[in-house]
Specification:
The complex is a heterotrimer. By secondary structure, chain A is mainly α. Chain A is about 65% helix and about 0% strand. By secondary structure, chain C is of the alpha/beta class. Chain C starts with 12 loop residues before the first strand and ends with a helix. The chains are: A mainly alpha, B alpha/beta, C alpha/beta. Chains in contact: A-B, A-C, B-C.
């Protein structure tokens, strides 16, 4: 059953190869107050959610951590995308829950851990959905990451959709030659991926060569002192976000240390399996 | 016969790529599907072997709805050759590359050997049988990709942009090869925007623009219709433009290549020369 | 390549063509340093652009002298906005922001893409992408623009448009242009010179109407169809005087012949 659900995520059979899980981390160009924020302030916000989620083990606190992100998602006009990415995380969330229960964690805690997973996933998905690869590269440059690294990163991100299309084309081309990816025993299925992987790798290499040629022709690496026509500027809204994050962290820490949170009582015990 | 009936298609995350497209391709026909980049041509032909299923309407290949058969089953009859051979080639030798599909379709090893030998010969690839496909030139790789599909002898052959990256001689050889395929009774469908190539082959032309069929008829009619050509981001064959500029001598409609233009002009030019000679001799 | 001798004057629009494998792509890559820096091999002879000896100079240094536009628009756009992409080369050169922006605006204006400033490359059509690539190269103000089959992936109308842009640049700012092309019917009318290579050597070199004779046909390049028509007529014995390369020229010559 697990395999079947997993296959639902790698739906090679139907109209397109859609890894729903990954989709939730893809940037879309929307004009929203969140999209216009500096990537650094957004990242601080994401780290804020992440830290709070790690801090708590109480399910109500974690639920709040999760739900409180929703206004931000609304502001970013990305609700449907966010929902889809949450749906994509269902399998993994379910897996976390089941694994915890099987190994003896009380159900309430298992639920809490699952909620934590969603809270963290949502935070990062939100960050990547609202920040373009270019902005990420700029942010990396601002914190003095060497240009070659930040450029590699942004180019890799830029190439993901292109290579996904390539992958789909290769799968289509080989299926058109009678290759059946969903038949045969486990070993045969692995072997069936060779006619997919090799053209993909070769295409990627050819593409890299072409890109490298073009880069050289645009004087890439001509000087160490690279300039940039755009620069990141923190504005009022960014400082507000940072302040809000700091305040939220402070509040969370206070609650964690001093407030007695209600617990969830579930009168059910999993029979001890291990 | 390939029958497309009121087919529409849209990806789950996108607009409609095909809108209410209908067309019938008889066995043994030679058809060119043309239109601007993004018109839906490749999407349409991917339905012929079941890679894509219509979101509305149906596609029937030899009477069977494509939703009833797997891609492998449909590919047995509809051979689809993709634009970029590098998306296909993976084997250690050309001969293995060609055997791949035959093994997938369950052919016996003696049949495989025979077919591989005969195809490599037909496409002038004999000397490359044990070479790696990756060391061949671009044009040669395209021939290997073509051979790799024709080797299982599909009834219908579909080529996606077969002329891109080919020089004139290679295109001429391709044209002759297509003529051969058609004479063998195969249906040949090419997706292309190479107007001069189509003008020389003179197939039936189905013109797509923004997901709709805007023209369907002989090349000579479609390619000389300036409004259709404009809508599909194509240009008229040079010879048609030339004939249009000579409207006063009433060239017949549909002269789209140099040979038929020559055939039309020669008697007219000769007639004048003949009259001149008569005048001189008097 | 073997024994290639060529000189191109400022402002010329030269077409380089020939059958597959004739060496035209190899030659172009010698001009911007990809050969011998990126591709190893044995390169002999002299190469100079603007009096400067370019053999052995790194490609990044030659980028301000020789601009290179490649076939596939997808693999020569690096940024997520057209403006940043056009500025890419200037950023690499360490140009100060103000100056770079000025050049970027000029280059985008010259290629007609000012309205696409904020768009991402994947939002553009193939023709628009190639314009952006040309603008990105133009911004570095090279003395010669080399284009390697830039219309390969474009539909006929976009191909005509991009060739129009290139011809306009050549005429208006006297940008020396070397265009490698198969689609001679579209480009011949703009070029003042066509060089045909075959098997690594230069076979023909001259104005288009002169080059598109019987020899060119035998080498196997795709001549404009009107030129081919006149070859056929000449073979049939008619007193054809010119080698037309455009519909207008062909029409004129035909009328002359018919009137006689």
């Amino acid at each position: 059953m697990a395999l079947r659900v997993l296959r639902g995520y790698c739906k090679v059979g139907e109209n397109e190869l859609s890894l729903k899980f990954v989709e939730g981390f893809k940037f879309t160009k929307i004009d929203s107050p969140i999209h216009r924020l500096d990537p650094r302030s957004k990242f601080i916000l994401t780290l804020g959610f992440f830290s709070v989620a790690l801090m708590f083990t109480n399910i109500y606190a974690l639920l709040v951590t999760f739900i409180i992100q929703i206004p931000a998602v609304l502001l970013a006009r990305s609700v449907s995308r966010w929902l889809r990415s949450m749906r994509g995380g269902l399998f993994l969330g379910f897996f976390i829950f089941i694994m915890n229960v099987i190994f003896g964690t009380p159900i309430a805690s298992s639920l809490a851990f699952t909620t934590r997973f969603f809270a963290i996933m949502s935070a990062f998905s939100f960050f990547f959905m609202t920040t373009s690869a270019d902005d990420l590269g700029l942010a990396l440059e601002e914190i003095h990451v060497p240009y070659s690294i930040s450029f590699t990163f942004t180019t890799a991100v830029r190439l993901v959709p292109t290579m996904a299309i390539d992958a789909q084309t290769v799968v289509d081309a080989q299926r058109s030659r009678g290759l059946e990816l969903d038949k045969g025993n486990f070993l045969k299925r692995i072997r069936n991926y060779i006619p997919i992987l090799i053209p993909l790798i070769i295409s990627a290499i050819r593409r890299s060569v072409e890109l490298a040629e073009a880069l050289e022709s645009r004087a890439f690496g001509a000087t160490e002192k690279r300039t940039s026509i755009v620069s990141l500027r923190m504005r009022g809204a960014d400082y507000l976000v940072i302040l809000a994050t700091a305040a939220g962290l402070a509040l969370a820490t206070y609650v964690y240390l001093y407030v007695q949170l209600p617990t969830l009582a579930i009168p059910f015990e999993m029979p001890r399996l291990f | 016969m390939i029958s497309v009936e009121n087919v529409s298609f849209h990806y789950t995350e996108g607009g409609e790529v095909l809108h209410d497209v209908s067309l019938k391709i008889e066995n043994g026909e030679f058809v060119a599907i043309m239109g601007e980049n993004g018109a839906g041509k490749t999407t349409l032909v991917k339905m012929f072997n079941g890679l894509l299923k219509p979101t509305a309407g149906k596609v029937l290949v030899d009477g069977v709805n494509t939703t009833q058969k797997s891609v492998a089953q449909l590919s047995r009859d509809v051979g689809l050759i993709f634009q970029n051979p590098d998306h296909q080639l993976f084997a250690e030798t050309v001969s293995e590359e060609l055997s791949f599909s035959l093994r997938n379709f369950g052919f016996g090893s003696d049949v495989i050997e025979r077919r591989v030998a005969s195809l490599t010969h037909a496409l002038d690839l004999d000397r490359y049988l044990s070479s790696s496909p990756f060391v061949l030139s671009g044009g040669e790789r395209k021939r290997v990709a073509l051979a790799a599909v024709l080797v299982w002898d599909p009834k219908h052959v579909v080529m996606d942009e077969p002329t891109i990256g080919q020089d004139y001689l290679q295109k001429d050889r391709l044209r002759q090869f297509i003529v051969q395929l058609v004479s063998q009774g195969k249906t040949v469908v090419i997706v292309t925007h190479d107007v001069e190539f189509v003008a020389e082959c003179k197939p039936r032309v189905v013109l797509l623009s923004r997901g709709k069929v805007i023209g369907d008829g002989p090349a000579a009619n479609i390619l000389t219709d300036s409004s259709l050509v404009e809508k599909a981001s194509l240009v008229m064959p040079q010879i048609s433009s030339l004939m249009k500029s000579l409207e006063d001598i009433s060239p017949p409609a549909g002269l789209i290549d140099a040979y038929s233009a020559r055939d039309f002009l020669t008697p007219r030019l000769r007639g004048i020369a003949g009259a001149q000679r008569v005048l001189q001799s008097r | 390549m073997e024994n290639v001798n060529m000189s191109i004057e400022n402002g010329e629009f030269v077409i380089l063509t020939g059958p597959s494998g004739c060496g035209k792509t190899t030659f172009c890559r010698c001009l911007n340093g990809l050969i011998p820096n990126f591709y190893s091999g044995d390169l002999q002879g002299e190469l100079s652009v603007d009096g400067m000896d370019i053999k052995g100079k790194p490609t990044a240094e030659l980028a301000t002298h020789v601009g290179f536009v490649f076939q596939n628009p997808e693999n020569q756009l690096f940024s997520l906005s057209v403006e940043r992409d056009v500025a890419f080369g200037l950023e690499n050169l360490g140009m100060p922001r103000e100056e770079a922006l000025e050049r970027v605006n000029w280059a985008m204006g010259a290629t007609g893409i000012l309205d696409l400033r904020e768009k991402a490359p994947y939002e553009l059509s193939g023709g628009q992408q190639q314009r952006a690539a040309i603008a990105g190269v133009l911004a570095m103000r090279p003395s010669i623009l080399v284009l390697d089959e830039p219309t390969s992936f474009l539909d006929p109308k976009s191909a005509e448009e991009i060739i129009g842009v290139i011809a306009k640049l050549n005429k208006e700012i006297r940008l020396t242009t070397l265009l490698v092309e198969h689609r001679l019917d579209i480009v011949s009318r703009y070029a003042n010179r066509v060089i045909v290579m075959d098997k690594g050597r230069i076979a023909l070199d001259g104005p288009p109407s002169q080059v598109f004779g019987e020899n060119a046909r035998l080498i196997g390049i795709g001549l404009p169809r009107v030129t081919m028509l006149f070859h056929l007529l000449r073979r049939d014995g008619f007193p054809v005087e010119v080698n037309p390369i455009t519909v207008e020229q062909a029409s004129e010559e035909l009328r002359r012949l018919l009137k006689k």
